[in-house]
Amino acid sequence: MSLLTLLPFIVLIGAMFLMTRSAKKKQQQAIDMRNQMQPGSGVRTIGGMYATVKEVSEDTVLLDAGPGVELLFAKNSIGAVLTDDEYNRIVHGIEHDLKSDADVVPDDASSLTETDDSAAASDDAPVDFGKKDTADAADAADTADTAGASADTVDAEPADAGTDAADKAKTDEQAKKSDGGSEAK
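RE: above sequence
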């Protein structure tokens, strides 16, 4: 047999060795973590429950989950042993050491993207959302209907046609409001 024929098998065996070795390291770290549990330390179970260790035996752990609630768990069901600060932060909401008040992220990003001058200017400027006001709609309808009315009838007066078109535009707009204002029906 040639070396090229055996090369894929050698690579496969090497990959399996590396995977089993890293899995064994993770198992050993989990065992060490579970062995360092002491009464009074906070833990998280694999089910996501937080509790305080009351007693530790060889295969089991007695946990205090609240006033008068004691639970017996297998050691393998402990997902993580938490530090006192982390346990108090999660369970009681107590922050012991805030590193710096200056590093706090704001609730909105507007202070990060705008300067003070542009923020003041942007508050005063109206925002166009693409909708026309009622007066703008009436003017547009007047223009369209006046041109249509003058092309259809030569004898009609421009002022009279403009008034009729404005009345029609108002009626159309009221109909739109009554059916939800949707133009795409």
